[in-house]
Amino acid sequence: MSSLLRMKTLISPTFAAFSPRLSRPTFSLPLSSSNSSIFALKNSNFRSLRLKPCSGKPAIRCLHGSPQMGAPRSPSSGEVHVIVGPMFAGKTTSLLRRIELESSSGRSVAVIKSSKDTRYGLDSIVTHDGVKFPCLALKDLSSFKETFGLNAYDQLDVIGIDEAQFFEDLYDFCREAADCDGKILVVAGLDGDYLRRSFGSVLDIIPLADSVTKLSARCELCGKRAYFTLRKTGETQTEVIGGADVYMPVCRQHYVSGQAVIETTRIVLESQPQKVQCG
């Protein structure tokens, strides 16, 4: 409930790459990795909105702006922007930068993540660098309107979705929110699983997208650009939530060789007779 209240008082950003109203092509994310990771609103009129790390009281972002912040968005002006790539490519960081830009331009935002990802708690999305941002954790996106509140939803301009591969209803939600409700959606997620197969519904929303950004990481073995995620462990199910202890980004060469090593090890282990301990 506390995270929902914080989300309902959120205001957040516009993409330099996506919005012609911004003059700056880049933006440096002024977020803190400390526990005081929500930001204080200093000006109630929002004329000079600056989001700064707060000490002491938890900071708030107000959802309700003054009239000069811009006219209501028409239903036809919705957008879908998709950010994909392997693990450790900076997808969440890129999402937060774009959300920050939307906030600084006076738009109201909310951020959603899957309740399956409990690594850093359920009230924040967290980058691999430790940067936090308040969010609402949901099992499915269809419950967002009701959970967030219909009136609050109507006032939203931008919705960020992190770890989008875990939402089975991603396509329907994005289509309705952009086409019917005029929302800007920023969607970040894995495009492929550890077997380089389509992961969840992320690739299904490409036909809906106004833009698609494919990020790369750095190969952990050679330093080249990495577009693939190699699983280090022996689990074979598609969804295994973990960090650097389970996955690493790799280039094509080391993905292929790494998969061969893993498969060879598995075959060897399975072919060995199991030892029987006698009491």
From TrEMBL:
Keyword Secreted carried by entry: no
Catalytic activity of the protein: thymidine + ATP = dTMP + ADP + H(+)
Keyword vocabulary terms for this entry: ATP-binding, DNA synthesis, Kinase, Metal-binding, Nucleotide-binding, Transferase, Zinc
Transmembrane segments: none
GO terms, molecular function: ATP binding; identical protein binding; metal ion binding; thymidine kinase activity
Group of enzyme by EC: transferase
PANTHER family xref list: THYMIDINE KINASE (PTHR11441), THYMIDINE KINASE, CYTOSOLIC (PTHR11441:SF0)
Protein name per UniProt: Thymidine kinase
Taxonomic lineage of the native organism: Eukaryota, Viridiplantae, Streptophyta, Embryophyta, Tracheophyta
